[in-house]
Specification:
By secondary structure, this protein is mostly beta strands. It is 0% helix and 56% strand.
Length: 131
């Protein structure tokens, strides 16, 4: 049973925070087996209550075809380069770059010549990526 600790706001006498001590705060990324989404594109996904994180690895020149989904998505290029297409606009992104894909907007990607690793965050949780 979860133990809840409530912090009181002295001005309003309302709870301002909950501590749930039995949650998983740390994740073993390497211990999670990747799942192939399309040939040359693999993901490891992790989620909690309201968001899903996807660590995506693309082989050199691998393609994630243009698609849409109802979840909002933000991505961080952790390694390599990728040509992102979002609603028809294309841009080559490199390590350290971010991108945003609103819900229901067509988007896809093609990895650079050395491949790439992307950290994507989805909200709400993208159920199809849970495995």
């Amino acid at each position: 049973m979860e133990r809840l600790i409530r912090a009181q706001n002295p001005k309003r006498h309302e709870p301002i925070g909950l501590v749930m001590p039995h949650r998983n705060y740390f994740v073993d990324v390497k211990g999670r087996k990747p799942k192939e989404i399309v040939p040359g594109v693999r993901t490891r996904t992790f989620w909690q209550d309201q968001m899903l994180v996807s660590l995506v690895e693309l082989d050199p020149s691998a393609v994630a075809p243009v698609h849409t989904h109802v979840e909002e998505q933000m991505g961080f290029i952790a390694k390599g380069t990728v040509e992102m297409e979002i609603e028809g606009a294309k841009r080559v992104l490199k390590e350290g770059d971010l991108y945003h894909v609103p819900a229901d907007v067509p988007h896809g990607a093609k990895a650079g010549p050395k491949g790439c690793t992307i950290l994507d965050v989805f909200s709400p949780i993208r159920e199809v990526l849970k495995y």
